[in-house]
């Protein structure tokens, strides 16, 4: 169910919300998928997560709250005279989780990465920016080491950021650079690495100042949502406003309509946002056309929610709405939909099938220390284009509130961790203790009833597993039960997830040229690589074969 809203009264909006919510709840079921606890404790709370091309996950937290529950290896300690809790700290605040073995090892994070941001470079290195205190302007990196197990964080002390980046957002660009936008009291953006010939190292973006609400702690424009569009420009959303931005000329190309409703959508009234899958099928008929691009934003909080929760312990109901904006339309308008329940601090994770999972968060309050109650245990599946798009899924057993995260991993599961709504680790807090556990949500397509329909990739017939721009490549796969016309190829960019925003998350549905049977139960699909650097920024992607709505496990390919 969807409705377009233009100049509607608040009373009319309320009636629509009530009507649609009742309809959705009556028609929803809670079947679909299941949960598995992978680890009771990984030693830290998973505030930030990034999947790497060697099938390991970099996970990290703050460093300024005291000791974690995992020691640094080799009896090592970290000395930092600027640390606000422990000058000498022998515990780790980051771990590397191995998906294949369900094991983890400690990593050494030397400066405070609290509420920081990140992106993968074209070579697959995690470029990590900003944080708090001694981490305000820090630039860090983590490079995978598939052949050994000794890689660790590297701090680039001679290449700091130009200004403080606390609660900023990142996006990899077509040229392989990373743009870093905003942060608390930072109304600017910059590029990493810096452009050597630029007269300035950062640029002022008044939009960031105009969208900030006046009360400190309740700015409602932190962690702005960034999405690279197929034309190479940047969609930026903050508070309730959004723009099309040419970052090469520091120019706003257009202001999009205000999202309907009173709700604020960015930290601490935290919603989540995705760029819905880009469909590249049939775009090359004589000349290449750009795919349609649609942004979706779900959840958030009403004005004053942060202050009421923080000062008076009054927890307003969160937003129930999602808004979709087809930004490539000539005159785009928001299309509003109603979720089965309210959510603040949701995570939105795109699946290789093109569907979307909304999970984590709370039904009341806002982001911030102990500012939310009533965790939402039921994930929701959203099917774009469906007449009844929302479906309740199997509930989690662990609530995930402030400082939790989620990522899609190559076998099709969703990895979920974190939740620490307290200033320090508090395992006795009632009812929401600090969570060090790690769970996995298994979508319905991983059920045994779909095994005959699940493809298994054998080879990628491309040099060095490279999906080159505009060129054909082939993938061979096994399949027990083939259904005609049901094969697709998707590329999924792994996200850097923190604070309900999966930065750089991207799903591309490739143009399939041919599917042929090459042996008994053996098939070959020929697909065309992405058309441009703007459609698919260079880097490592998870490649899935999707057959009859059931994805294979992914293999990693490099788009370049």
TrEMBL record:
Keywords: Signal. Residues 47-445 form the Glyoxal oxidase N-terminal domain. Residues 1-23 form the signal peptide. Gene3D superfamilies: Galactose oxidase/kelch, beta-propeller (2.130.10.80), Immunoglobulins (2.60.40.10). Residues 455-559 form the Galactose oxidase-like Early set domain. InterPro entries: Gal_Oxase/kelch_b-propeller, Gal_Oxidase_central_sf, Glyoxal_oxidase_N, GO-like_E_set, Ig-like_fold, Ig_E-set. CDD domains: E_set_GO_C. This is Aldehyde oxidase GLOX. It comes from Glycine soja (Wild soybean).
